Amino acid sequence: MFKKTAICIALSALFVGVNAQAATIYENENGDNVKVYGEVGVGGHFSPNYEYAEYFEDKSYIDDSFATMGIKGNYDSVYYRLELDYERENWKYGSGEMVLAIDKLFIGYHITDNHAVEFGLTDTALDDYDKFGDFTFDTTVETGEAGDQANTIKYEGNLSFFKAGVSYSYQGESSSGAALGDVVNGYFGYFSDYVDVVAGAETRTGSEGKSKYGEQVLYALGARIYITDSIAIGINAYIEDEDIAQSSTVIDNTDPLNTTSVYNDYQTMRNKGGLVSARYKLDKKWEFTGSYNFEEYEKWDVTSPYGVSPDREASWGKERVWGTVGVNFRPSRSVIFAVEGSVGEAAQDAYAYARVYF
Q1: What distance lies between CA 354 and its chain's CA centroid?
Q2: What is the pairing mode between strands 213-226 and 195-204?
Q3: pTM over cut 0.90
């Protein structure tokens, strides 16, 4: 994911005085409009397992509160978006603090009603579909795709039951700001009333020694099967070959707190994972979800020449399997209360969240 740029909180003044109940703040007879939107969410992870290296600190509860506010609009064939996120950096190597950041900043153009291109800081094409078959509320199996990136050009189009997208990001970055090189990804999908299927792929050129990240190729597949109006089954799977540097050399230690290194000895690590999920809608307000998850990283494998040493073997071995069961309550279309419990080799025991959209 793109390392979000910290900004002065004064930028939030752009939205002061906007009535959350009146999303459209400008519209004319030509259909041009400006709208404000956002969400507020409070919740977090209960009894997280620090050994899984997903969280910034070893605590019994990890806050995951989040807020978004944005402006979007269009003038004739041109559309745009500016979106600010206020989120806690609770991931591994994160600060643990709440940080205000620009999440999206792009301008797009509708070539026709069915085809569009956009430019700027935006989500890459595969980002919208990397967890397509997952009906659970919290993230389960992660594909590791590029997420939001600056310097991105993206195309998306649809025809009848089919939709496709592709994006190119110049000099992408990871969530920590590490160089990834140029990133290209895309997807192709079929959508109907009975089944949706999306296949995607991603590749990057690598950092050329600037970070531990080298070249990468990722393939992903997601599907949703609508058995009845109330019951749906989802499938997600991915396989990734990622070059990771095994060593580095310090080339400038003038400032001991800010040394410069060059990374080398890149070796290909294979990662893969998948899930099967299900959703049952009891009525308009209540729904139940569940999932079965599998994930395997070569860096966990003590038998791999590029995995961990036996004395650092993870408690789950070279692969982990876990399940989730969740309940979602929607008192209105814009509000959701969610609780999910985990069993097996999960990174947390439970996740609870309340979210309001506007």
Answers
A1: 19
A2: antiparallel
A3: no
